[in-house]
Amino acid sequence: MTPLDSPLPPVWESAGFLVGFVFSLLILSFIIRDSWLVRAAQYLLVGVTLAYTVVLVWSNVLWPRLFVPLLENPLPLPDSAGQIAPVLWNGWLPLAAGLILWAAGIDYLRARSSESPNRWLRHLAALPLALLVGVGLGAGVAGAIQGTLLPQFRRAGAMVQLLDATPPLLLAGLLTLVVTGGALLHWQLGTPTGDDSRFPLGLRPLLMGWAWLGERALWLAAGVIFARLFASRITLLIARLDALFFSQQISELWRWLLALVQGG
Amino acid sequence: MTSTFGCPHCGKPNPLAVVFCAACGAYLQGLDTAELARNAPPAVPPAEDAPPPQDETRKRPYNPVPSQPWLRPNFDESDPQSAETSPSPVDEQPWLAVDREAQDAARSPRPAPQRLIGGLQGLIEPLEMDQTLFQPESTTPTAPGMADLSYEMRRELRQLFATDLLIQDDPSPNAPDGGLPGGLPGGPAGGQSGTHGRGLWRRNWIYGLLLAAILLALWTSNAAPDSRPHSWPGVTAAYSAIDSLPPNAVVLVNWAYDPAHASEMDLAALPVVEHLLEKGARLLVISQLPGGPASARRLLAVARSGASQAALNRQLGEGLIEGGYLPGGVGSLSLLGQAPAQGLPVDIQGRSVRNRAAITALDNASPALLLVVAARSEEVQRWIEQIQPLNRAPLIAVTSAAVDPAIRPYVDSGQIVGLVSGYAGAIEYRDLLADVLPKAGQEAQRRHITGQNWALAVLLLVIAVGNLAGLAERREP
Predict the structure, then answer these.
(1) Looking at the domain assignment, is residue B411 inside a domain?
(2) ipTM
(3) To 5 degrees, how large is the angle CA B290–CA B294–CA B298?
(4) A139 and B138 in contact by Cβ < 8 A?
(5) What is the CATH number of the domain that holds B318?
């Protein structure tokens, strides 16, 4: 037996498949009409997903990575070299920050008003929150610059080198530069009005036209994103139908249902 | 007694004890919902010649929470109290006050409406947001927009934006089930509008047609495909990169899809994982999605069962570490890129990974390969931006076909050495492996491809027929 083998008896897998089959039918009944069956299935799915996430976070993150180290070595005593044990930074500090966030969140849910008497708690919770957001944004922006923006601009710049670029590459590079610049310009300028005095008169039509092009490119990108989303949802529907009617397990299910109907 | 009340923001009926509006997401706690239910205004404004309400004294003003003044019916009218107490967007966001005086002059004819920011509320009033944020600096009169409409009409429009597309039998304003002021069909008072349509106008017909086409394709796709999928650049490079791995090379794998996307992603990922196992690679698998570890475990078990025993025997020690769920988003990725043993202290079963071979091999060296198996382009981008600059390892992406266009520029720039996407990529990779799917797998693959083609064909048909019908309708007198 390898670590990947399921420890569950086969009957559990069949039960899971039957539950999935019932839920699929409930949700697909939306084709007929929106009903409480559809809603109940949706709510149950959302609830089960949340519960699964909570269990996963506890068993895979909080317990082994936070509480076990704290229980094994709770005191941040300095070692022989005078170094403070990392449990202070890796254990107690995250725990304290998490508890503050929890308390502030619960207070917010309870009070539901900006005039809550526990404003100090929210101000305190702003510190770990600011740390989270700041670190995330800092890492994200730095990564986007070094991993996407600079390499892509370098590539686009290399593609438009007239001496050694083939026509399709040249066209693609020019298009990338024009559309990227236009989109950025549109975000900066907003909808062109034609009388923007921030720019020299001679450049105004060019910039406005470029921003106009960027706006159209953004709409086109939005359409592509929607089309991709739709295609992926069609794929999901096909997979579900295929699982319901054609997979090995469902064949067994049909046989089981047939036997049930026939009294066998 | 009435058990529902109309949301003051969009008009949608909601249960009395609701916290957020089910349609527009407006925060409704703190409202006197019972009073609102008793004084529920008609969902469609009464005609101009309609008699006034009989009992005006029963309508007492309600007091929404102070942070949402737009829930007041008379929000359009000037309110000295709110003018004194409610800060304007510019007051709250000083960076918007580039030319405050010019903006004030432009807005002087009428007070600028309060922006609806917060949760979903900002998403359903784009016209108002646009006018408030990007107010032209010139003093020329602006075209009439949403802010010029009455409160009732704005609420109707909000509800229209927040409602699924409905098509009536009779779109005229005199239709018995009502219409929006200004001749807009599909007013909320229509209630049943959209359920009495004819032919393709009925939404359910479109759903049914789509479903029938997919089912028909699934049942009739037993014939062998008469064409090969398009060969995209990147598949051969991915194969070459994996094929050139030395035995026991450590591969860091990001499993970024959950069971919801398993149909397409399993098909694309399986030949790549099988190839890695055949090459004797040691896999260190993590996921930043809650459902990712379960998906990885299931597919890895399938791939391992199909791998040759000789290949599995070639592996020295542990060939797979399941890192499980890695929370923390971008921040934890940086740590994983720099020091995997610190970023990934325990595996999915809670056992320490610090002294295990695949991890210790990364103490002084980068992984031989990064593999991202993702249903969304953002997951691939994150690894390109956060992990690859730190360890400089080559990266291969296995994605759904929908993600391919967004990832393709990274292939062209050389940041991704290989890309296997969708059914087409999976089939081509299988060909390179000189491997054939088992019969059941071939049939499933054929069904999926045919179903996808038929669904897209039906959608194109619906779009074409809809456009033609719209064109014909427009030409009618």
Answers:
(1) yes
(2) 0.72
(3) 155
(4) no
(5) 3.40.50.10160
